[in-house]
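>> Question from a student workshop board

For tomorrow's exercise we were told to take the sequence and the ligand below, predict the bound structure, and bring the output to class. My setup keeps failing. Could a helper post the expected result so I can at least see what it should look like? The ligand is thymidine-5'-diphosphate.
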Amino acid sequence: MAKPPAFVCSACGALHTKWSGRCDACGEWNTITEDVPISTGPATGLGAKRGARIQLSDLSTDEAPPPRTASGMAELDRVLGGGLVPASAVLVGGDPGIGKSTLLLQAAASFARAGLKAIYVSGEEASAQVRMRAQRLGLTDAPVKLAAETNLRDILTMLEAEKPALAIIDSIQTMWSDQVGSAPGSVSQVRAAAHELTSFAKRHGVAVILVGHVTKEGTIAGPRVVEHMVDTVLYFEGERGHQFRILRAVKNRFGPAEEIGVFEMTGGGLAEVANPSALFLSDREDPAPGSVVFAGIEGTRPVLCEFQALVAPSPHSQARRSTVGWDGGRLAMILAVLEARCAIPFAGLDVYLNVAGGLRISEPAADLAVALALLSAREDISVPPQTVVFGEISLSGALRPVSQTENRLKEAQKLGFSAAIAPARSKLSGDAGLSVRKYKDLTELVGDLFGAG
Ligand code: TYD
Ligand code: MG
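>> Workshop helper replied:
Here is what the output should look like for this input. Compare the format with yours to find the bug.
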């Protein structure tokens, strides 16, 4: 009998008997992964095995929403959507060394102090190492139970006997199931372990938090399918050399996605940052050309941050476009709009754009702040002092109003700003507390602020 195909191309689904770098069915590279196929008979019709009859139910319910447990770490609770939901599965991804184990040990202690029975399973460190870390973090008195184990079967047996309310698995890449032949960390192992643990969570009413390492490409090592299996996916991010760490919800079945929690890595572990705006603007110098304060919204909360641009003649034939914390494609679009609609060329000029403090901004509402930072750097003219900026730019150069104008202005006022630059048609009810300058398009704004255009 021929060997059954055990490899599958994740792009086209073609089956292969052996691994190769390129799928000869569709021509894609690096898409073939090990996959043990399930034997299937006909699902319906003649000869099919009949399944059990499924009970249907209505959409209406008398059940109260599941009681959440708040850890008391406000930044973590917000990202979880208000606390931990029982029997839910959470994946926390992040680069090695970013602080995942630190965060989750602190979370385990907080949940344990809030009354949940919590078990922390480390597959990466010995119990003594975890205990040393707990000592450093001042958590030794928290009623958290520890295990250093990688054998999935043993872990599940232990969890079944102990019946905790929360189990933390650090990390999913170190877990090893004896039912899968491949090595720990391989795609099939990660997938099998994640599947076993999430279905265990549902069956036994245990909330599980899985730690996942992120690959160079920025996704959680192992298959993307782990992200589909769990209820909530959080990413723990931060720039090397910065103390700030951001916990970001990218998927949440029980709360808003795109919510962020801000932490600071200190000698005694992660400290919560209750007022991120103040932190991101804390080491701001006097208004300089190229620096613009953006009034943004991260999740449900307004956050102010600073865009910095540098525009300089390029010594190279191909000018550089470099950006940190903001999408490169969006930068190119804004440069093109400035060239086409305002006749301000950037050809032959190197352009650098940073978000200060290591924050990553993806809101289109930051377009106007980016454009102003670029113009201000190019013309060497500072934007008016004590001013925040927000607005989306369309390809025609028109400024589009953005959501939550009032929240943005309120936060700016709270931090001592006195003026704002915003799109015309921004919705404002009553007194904003700041003087708001409104513009309908970029040309009008450039003429007013830079005397050109
Ligand atoms: P860790 O939680 O081990 O990261 P991960 O689990 O994501 O790989 O954190 C490792 C880094 O955090 C390490 O470089 C040291 C630093 N750290 C502190 O700065 N302060 C602390 O209190 C602790 C525990 C770690
Ligand atoms: Mg770790």
